[in-house]
Amino acid sequence: MPERRATSRGASRLNAVDWIAMVLLFVGGINWGLVGLFGIDLVAMLFGEMSALSRVVYALVGASALYTIYSGNKLFRS
């Protein structure tokens, strides 16, 4: 009988898009935490205030939040 590896129930269901969304949510959460605590917008510091690249980062963080809401609802229904 082959050995079975112990994995958490949800970890085996994460694909590459899920991991990218999670990383982007971490980036967004850290950025908003810095804004709230210290008034420092790390994305704006790195890429320029409302530059095209910073807007892309903000849009990707927002899209990852929407994707996570969608995939979370899908996961809880199964």
List the helices and strands and how they pair.
Layout: H1 16-38, H2 42-47, H3 52-77
Polypeptide structure, described:
By secondary structure, this protein is mainly α. The protein has one domain (14-77). Helix content is 71%, strand content 0%. The protein has helices at 16-38, 42-47, 52-77. Helix 1 (16-38) crosses helix 3 (52-77). The longest helix has 26 residues, at 52-77. Residues 1-7 have low confidence and may be disordered.
How many domains? The number is 1
Largest sheet: none
Q: Give the helix proportion (percent range).
A: over 70%
Distance between the termini: 29 Å
Overall SS class: mainly alpha
- Shape designation: elongated
**Secondary-structure element string:** HHH
Given as residue ranges, the uncertain stretches (5+ residues, pLDDT < 50) are 1-7
The whole-number mean of residue pLDDT values reads 86
Strand tally: 0
- Rg estimate, integer Å: 17 Å
Keywords: Membrane, Transmembrane, Transmembrane helix
Transmembrane segments: 20-40, 52-70
Protein name: DUF378 domain-containing protein
Organism: Noviherbaspirillum autotrophicum
Can I get a quick summary?
InterPro entries: DUF378. This protein has helices spanning 16-38, 42-47, 52-77.
List keywords for this structure.
78 residues, 71% helix, transmembrane, transmembrane helix
